[in-house]
Amino acid sequence: MAPEQQPDELERPIGEECGVFGVWAPDEDVAKLTYYGLYALQHRGQEAAGMAVSDGSAMLVYKELGLVSQVFDEATLQGLRGHLAIGHTRYSTTGSGTWENAQPSFRNLSTGGSLALGHNGNLTNTTELARRVAELDPASAARGTLQATTDSDLITTLLASHPDLSPDAAALQVLPLLQGAFCLVFMDEHTLYAARDPHGVRPLVLGRLERGWVVASETAALDIVGASLVREVEPGELLAIDEHGVRSSRFADATPKGCLFEYVYLARPDTTIAGQSVYTTRVQVGRTLAFEAPVDADLVIPVPESGTPGAIGFAEQSGIPYGMGLVKNAYVGRTFIQPSQTIRQLGIRLKLNPLREVIKGKRLVVVDDSIVRGNTQRALVRMLREAGAAEVHVRISSPPVMWPCFYGIDFASRAELIASGMGVEEIRSSIGADSLAFVSIEGLTGASNQRADRLCRACFDGHYPIPVPQPDLIGKHVLEGLQRSAEASVVHNGVGPAEDESLLAPADLAPRR
Questions:
Q1: Omega into 135 within 30° of 0, i.e. cis?
Q2: Are 265 and 308 in contact (CB under 8 A)?
Q3: Three-state helix/strand/coil letters over 197-247
Q4: Is 427 in a helix, a strand, or coil?
């Protein structure tokens, strides 16, 4: 590792997108239910957390940068009283990791009342939506003073721009305008709403309390608050939940394309997606790996924690003993303490440390969930050899990640993805392993127990089920770029959108596949 490299630069973690949670329960402490629901969804986003709570007459929104346990304490939750709440954990895929971009986003409605919204996913027509929002408030757009720089904030603004309509009626107007992946929870003072994009790229489920209802990104969040799973929110469906129960309407036909990578890495192992256990899928992928890429070895070890189910399956299928050869520091996360030169050079040991007495002299099969840039695996192989491993055979529980995601995962650009420019043998040589194999896309799909035509596998095969815009109209900071352009125009030319509509208008939005 280069001397100047930070430990977190070893391999920038895959952005787990976001987690959303909503609850309507008149006899419950909804703020605490939301807190624990978000706690169960912490893996989906660690940059910020927030919730909105209503007692029927007023809505309070509290959000801050940090983990759920850092943002909320007992005193804060005591001040959030009501019968209705939504919550959000954020990993930024559109917009910087600033307080303004933390969610729920919020708008006062011109007819009285207010609206709060949380979003998991990523829109692909953000620039077009920014133009629509600019038309609603040209002066703010020209000054670059729109409240936030996220696609989520654009959705909130559009929903609030129909003062003559109820929120669900406004949603039926706005949701068909959205392209890309989105799971939404939103609310006014009286009603909880949930919506899922027509492709159902990201998971969203409906649960039942004894007297109330819950919606959440994953079934694990239902479990923690004692809710029973009712069903998934259907692709293209809008739910409204209040004292009259659950009302369903449809804003688009369903064309399911669930994310295959949820099964590989994103979702918790104790979650169920489309009726399939994530843990069972990961164990089956390990079995498939052992069948597709056998190897003579003495011990199978996982890269904890996401590699563990795959390693169990590999060991079961191959008959090679399973063991714990690496210990993970469960408390390593983002750190603002500048590491010393010595610590920088140790790199991966901040997160993983080998059990020398277990691996010394052994031929190892090391099972991990994916390879993105290859830096972590390179350091890991070197560390295992230094600890005395005789051979290191790497097995990966996903196909090579060759294409970026535009639907809510903060993958690197294609130029940074090691598999986009190297074959398997070249990657093996680069990371220094004795052998390397990835599970086939057919093997992974089969393990998920889902039909291939109902899955998004774009990060593996490059076939994007939802059209994406031209390269200059995509990216995490596209809205900040639009704001900078607007500000520069005001400073240097004194023009606003009425005089120069190109500032916030999209260029060619022809889909790229």
A1: no
A2: no
A3: CCCCCCCCEEEEECCEEEEECCHHHHHHCCCEEEEECCCCEEEEEECCEEE
A4: helix
DSSP code, position 266: I
DSSP lists the bridge partners of residue 455 as 258
CA distances from 228 to 37, 205, 296 (A): 13, 10, 45
Rounded alpha-carbon distances, angstroms, from residue 332 to 47, 229, 336, 350, 351: 15, 33, 12, 7, 6
**How far apart are alpha carbons 135 and 501 in whole angstroms?**
9
Does residue 203 contact residue 273 with C-beta atoms inside 8 Å?
Answer: yes
- Asked if 42 contacts 175 with a C-beta cutoff of 8 angstroms, the reply is no
Statement: residue 246 has pLDDT above 90: yes
**Which uninterrupted H or E stretch holds 140?**
helix 138-143
Over the stretch 68-83, which tens digit does the pLDDT of each residue have? 999 999 999 999 999 9
Q: Which two tokens stand for residue 40?
A: 């169960």
Q: Are 122 and 93 in contact (CB under 8 A)?
A: yes
The residues pairing with 328 across neighbouring beta strands, listed in sequence order, are 352
Is 90 strand, coil or helix? strand
* Residue appearing with tokens 């420019």: 421
Kind and range of the H or E run holding 281:
helix 278-292
How much is the pTM? Answer: 0.86
- Decide if 348 contacts 376 (C-beta within 8 A): yes
The answer to whether 431 touches 378, Cβ cutoff 8 Å, is: yes
Look at 402 and 504; give whichever has higher pLDDT: 402
- Given the structure tokens 């004894």, which residue do they identify? 210
Phi, psi of 149 (to 5 degrees): -125, 55
Cα dihedral 478, 479, 480, 482 sign: positive
Residue 216's nearest CA partner among 420, 19, 466, 77 is: 19
The token pair at 362 is 């052994």
CA-based nearest residue to 39, from 13, 71, 61: 71
Q: Letter for the amino acid at 318?
A: S
Under a CB-based contact definition with an 8 Å cutoff, are residues 314 and 320 in contact?
Answer: yes
Contacts of 450 by beta carbon, 8 Å cutoff, 6+ apart: 258, 260, 274, 276
Helix, strand counts (H, E) of the chain: 19, 23
Percent of the chain with pLDDT over 70: 81
Q: Tokens 């390179």 sit at which residue?
A: 378
The enclosing H or E element of 318 equals helix 308-318
Q: Characterise 56 by phi-psi region: left (phi > 0), alpha (psi -120 to 50), beta (else).
A: left
Q: Which of 322, 321, 323, 436 is nearest to 374 (CA)?
A: 436
Neighbouring CB atoms inside 10 A of 446's CB total: 16
Q: Is there a catalytic annotation at residue 18?
A: yes
Task: Name the region of 255 (left: φ>0; alpha: ψ -120 to 50; beta: rest).
Answer: beta
